Amino acid sequence: MTEKELIKKKNVGDYFMIVLGSAIMAAALMFFLIPNKVSAGGVSGLATILYHLLGLPAGMTMLALNIPLFLIGVKIFGRKFGMKTLWGIICISLFSDLFDLVLKLPPATDDHLLATVYGGVLLGVGLGVIMKGRGTTGGSDIIARILNKYFHTSLGTSFMLIDTVIIVVMGIAFADVDLILFCLISLAISSKIVDMVMEGLTSERALTIISEKWEIIAKRIISEVNRGVTGLDSTGMYTDIRKKTLYCVVVTRQIEEIRRIVKQEDPRAFVTVSNVSILQGEGFRERTVLNEE
Question: What is the pTM of this model?
Fold first, then answer.
């Protein structure tokens, strides 16, 4: 199989994972969260408000809100917000209205606590699967990156700010303080589940990269992933060749992107990924915000 065929096969697999993840997310929204006025923030939170107050279809509302944000993202950031983001936006919107309007499937429960827990878990699983397929669902992801670019707030802070504001607005719109608490629980659960789906139980990883093309790999990680890289002087004991060993700590959602960069530049590079239990320093908090990318 040629390299072009492998890339095509990988892309097909990515699009399938985005479809699967979107279906899972839509199930979380329509069977648990939206009917019970619970949300983990983002565009789905605004769709929840309009669904209950104005009777607007949740899927089409999310699509209508996401498309302008997608176009803004493409204009500001270029092709990095490409077809996979648009595909994710469309899929989750279509699945949501398929479950609610076409199939008219009833909510799985009317208990707020059960809806919060199971909805949060399913939402996190769905989003994690989408990210495994190198896609996103737009929405707060685009807004967070805009805030990061123009106001220099970290992506984690931006995500938490956006989601918290939307959750508070939901509580005010429905005149129910308890909803704010349920929404925050759902946000915490879904965020943690995303990280578990992506790379396991901890949210940060340390990468060690040994490659003769260490310089270009380091530059691409810094420019494309926006993470710092440390070059450690090292010597190959078998070849007696001096080079740099790259060390980089990232959040789990950046692992696949970095591995892809390394493979593109040097398929023979040696890469290890290890867990990070305690972390502090520039670029990270004591525990990295789960939503940070």
Answer: 0.70
